[in-house]
Every structure is written in structure tokens, then in C-alpha cells.
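Q: What residues go here?
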């Protein structure tokens, strides 16, 4: 009797095992049953509004910007006067843009605009300041602000640029070696980033003559140095002043006023431009709008393709070194300038120039 029960129990266990195996096999072999967990629905791709897709983005951005560009430009005097009045009330560029012995006497503490640092003006430092503001007694009818964009290549804008009464250039650009046809060679003011002095001229710690000789193409122009933005800028900027004095160069070194730069940054932020630091080009364009009755911008184009034909461009007309995109907001700055162009406040030149400027 006991043996019979054990046999029945074993038989029952075998049947249960076989039934389970059969059910598992049928489930696995049924192709209509998914074998994996259900996946979430694929997200719809978000359109790329940045204009940076590999083959089309840059062209889309260029086309969008060019829709805002009016090649048949006409100055609107009321718009110009209104914008200039707003800019002047914020920045006072005519009296504040340059550090002078008049606005920064001995004992003044200069507050840097790029870092939390103050420097007291000593008699020795004071002696390096220009005596009076160079822009207080003169304004110009026409000014050309020349950026260094690759869009200037084959532009034939040199003659037109040189026809302006006052020409402002940025970051010690080359004007010889065949560039004259596109960029001209007349210069009233040229800026110099201290990084150029450090990289190209070894901080003026060794041979200084090459630096002086490189400036000969700028004649007796003002050399504008941001000596009080960051601590390391100060000493190399002073070395530049001493070098020009020692070699009796006609170039006239002056220092950008950090107070003016702070005011200008506040003005553009109020206009809706948010950038870590303004580019030299925008700073110079802003200054020109206070100094000049008619402002023309050349070489301002922050994109790697030409607006007409979309052929590739180098970043600068003389090299392809890239700007620091983490610090400067070039496309955003350009859009603001393009907006002013559309309002008849400033003329942005894109493409080739007329052979006979008027």
C-alpha cells in the first residue's frame, strides 16, 4: 500500500514537471508574444534652432540673418539721435572712454572691470596717462570701424574704408602684404589685446624693436590698451608704453577706462545682450557711435560661410584662429548690430564694396 502511494506521488510530480515544461515551450515559441519589456515610444526629434547642423544649420542661420539685412541702406537721423543719446547717457564715451590725467588723478583707485582688483594711481603710473581726453574737442563726420572677419577677403573695400575721416581697427591687424586692397591702411586708432604682446612679442621682456617696427604701419594713430581689465594686463601694457617712448615712436598709447567698459556692458545688457565680455569690435563700434555722425562697419561677420554663395571663410582675413566662444557672444552681438543697421543707425557692410566710394 505504501509503495503504491509513493509511485502515485512520483508520477504526479513528473506530470507537473512535464506540464510546466510544455507551457514554457509554447510561450517561448509563440512569435506573437513579445520577449522583451515594452519600450517607451521614441521621442520626436526636436528641431535644431541653433543653426549648427552639419550641412544645413550654418546656411539656415545665414539665411535668417540676411532676411534682416537691407542692402539698400538709408540713415534714419531720428533713430540715430535717439540711440546715440541713450548710449551717451549710459557711457559718456567722449569723456570716460580713455583714462587721462584729467579724469584719473594721482591717488585715485582704479577699479578693474574684469576682476575684483583695485590699483592706486601713483605719480609714476600717472605719468603714463595721456593729459586730456583726445575725443573731447573733435567729432568726425564719417568713421569706419574695421573688424577682422574673413568676409573682407576679396571685398575690395580698402579704398572705401580709407575714405572715412577716422578709421578704427582691432587687435593690431596686418595691413600690408597685399591686404590693402581689401582693408585699406588708414588708421586713427588701433586696439591691442595684451595677449598679442605676450604671445607675439614675448611680453616685451626681451627684444623690443620688432614690436615698434610692427606698429609703423599705423602711423601716428592711438594705440588703445585695456591695461586695467585683468591684473596681468597692466605690466605688459606699461612695457608697451615705455617701449614706444624709448624708441620715440609716433604711435600714441592710451588706456581704456574700466569704468567706461562697465558702463558699456550695462548698456548692452539693458539692450538684451548677455555675454561674459563684450568683444573688441562691439566696444569700438559703440565708441564710434558717440564720436561720429556716420558709422560704417566692415569685417563684422561671425559665421564660417559667406552670406552670398555660402562659400567657406576663414575666421579672420589674415588667419583662421578661432575666437573664444565661451567669453564672447559674437552671433548675438552681430544680431544687435544688424538690428541697428535695419533702423538706419549704423551701416553694416557685407560683400564687395563699390570701386568709387562716395
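A:
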Amino acid at each position: 500500500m505504501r509503495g503504491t502511494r509513493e509511485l502515485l506521488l512520483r508520477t504526479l510530480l513528473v506530470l507537473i514537471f512535464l506540464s510546466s515544461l510544455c507551457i514554457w515551450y509554447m510561450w517561448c515559441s509563440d512569435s506573437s508574444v513579445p520577449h522583451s519589456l515594452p519600450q517607451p515610444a521614441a521621442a520626436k526629434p526636436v528641431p535644431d534652432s541653433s543653426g549648427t547642423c552639419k550641412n544645413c544649420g550654418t546656411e539656415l542661420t545665414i539665411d535668417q540673418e540676411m532676411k534682416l539685412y537691407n542692402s539698400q541702406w538709408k540713415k534714419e537721423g531720428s533713430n540715430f539721435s535717439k540711440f546715440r543719446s541713450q548710449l551717451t547717457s549710459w557711457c559718456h564715451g567722449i569723456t570716460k572712454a580713455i583714462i587721462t590725467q584729467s579724469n584719473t588723478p594721482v591717488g585715485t583707485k582704479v577699479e578693474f572691470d574684469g576682476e575684483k582688483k583695485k590699483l592706486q594711481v601713483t605719480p609714476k603710473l600717472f605719468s603714463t596717462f595721456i593729459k586730456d581726453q583726445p575725443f573731447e574737442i573733435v567729432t568726425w563726420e564719417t568713421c569706419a570701424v574695421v573688424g577682422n572677419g574673413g568676409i573682407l577677403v576679396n571685398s575690395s573695400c580698402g579704398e572705401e574704408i580709407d575714405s572715412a575721416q577716422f578709421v578704427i581697427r582691432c587687435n593690431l591687424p596686418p595691413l600690408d602684404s597685399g591686404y590693402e586692397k581689401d582693408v585699406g591702411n588708414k588708421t586713427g586708432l588701433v586696439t591691442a589685446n595684451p595677449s598679442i604682446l605676450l604671445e607675439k612679442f614675448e611680453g616685451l621682456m626681451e627684444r623690443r624693436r620688432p614690436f615698434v617696427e610692427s606698429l609703423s604701419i599705423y602711423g601716428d594713430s592711438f594705440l588703445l590698451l585695456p591695461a586695467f581689465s585683468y591684473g596681468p594686463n597692466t605690466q605688459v601694457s606699461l612695457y608697451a608704453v615705455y617701449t614706444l617712448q624709448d624708441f620715440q615712436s609716433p604711435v600714441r598709447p592710451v588706456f581704456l577706462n574700466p569704468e567706461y567698459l562697465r558702463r558699456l556692458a550695462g548698456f548692452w545688457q539693458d539692450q538684451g545682450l548677455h555675454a561674459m565680455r563684450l568683444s573688441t569690435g562691439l566696444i569700438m563700434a559703440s565708441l564710434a557711435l558717440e564720436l561720429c555722425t556716420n558709422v560704417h562697419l566692415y569685417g563684422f561677420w561671425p559665421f564660417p560661410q559667406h552670406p552670398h554663395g555660402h562659400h567657406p571663410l576663414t575666421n579672420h582675413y589674415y588667419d583662421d584662429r578661432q575666437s573664444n566662444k565661451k567669453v564672447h557672444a559674437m552671433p548675438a552681438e552681430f544680431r544687435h548690430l544688424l538690428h541697428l543697421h535695419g533702423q538706419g543707425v549704423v551701416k553694416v557692410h557685407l560683400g564687395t564694396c563699390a570701386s568709387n566710394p562716395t
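A: Context that may help when evaluating the design: The first strand starts at residue 109 and ends at 111. The chain has a mean pLDDT of 85.
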